[in-house]
Amino acid sequence: MAMKINQVKLAVNGVDLVFEPNYTAYNQFINEMSMDNKVAPANNYLRRIASQDTKEALDTILVLPGAALQLVEEVNKIFAPKLEIEVKN
Fold first, then answer.
1. What angle do CA 25, 27, 30 make, to 5 degrees?
2. What DSSP character marks residue 80?
3. How far apart are CA 63 and CA 46, in angstroms?
4. Do 22 and 8 touch, CB atoms closer than 8 A?
5. Does position 2 have pLDDT exceeding 70, yes or no?
């Protein structure tokens, strides 16, 4: 059985951020993302899952180019890790 992740804590440029990812927000992020639309869904996802105490700090980081996609990658490495899949025919 998978372990439930309640919080992901990151330090970004000296700023502490806490995220509380969940299946609903993650699935919404995946559904909103498309080949030509990645940054806005990433920003929205991060704002949805940021803890109330770190939302202001997150805004200071999200103004940096590429920040949203880098943060999403780190959060999802923990929340939605790659599966070990083996094809057996």
1. 110
2. S
3. 13
4. no
5. no
What is the per-residue pLDDT across 16-55, written as a single tens digit (0 to 9) for each?
999 999 999 999 999 999 999 999 999 999 999 999 999 9
Decide: helix, strand or coil at residue 87.
coil
The position carrying tokens 């699935």 is 27
What pLDDT, on the 0 to 100 scale, is given for residue 21?
97
Of the candidates 43, 3, 45, 5, the residue with the CA atom closest to the CA atom of residue 28: 45
- What is the C-alpha to C-alpha distance for residues 57 and 12, in angstroms, rounded to an integer? 10
Whether the model pTM is above 0.85:
yes
- The residue among 16, 8, 10 whose CA lies nearest residue 81 is 8
Angle at 17 between CA 2 and CA 36, to 5 degrees: 75
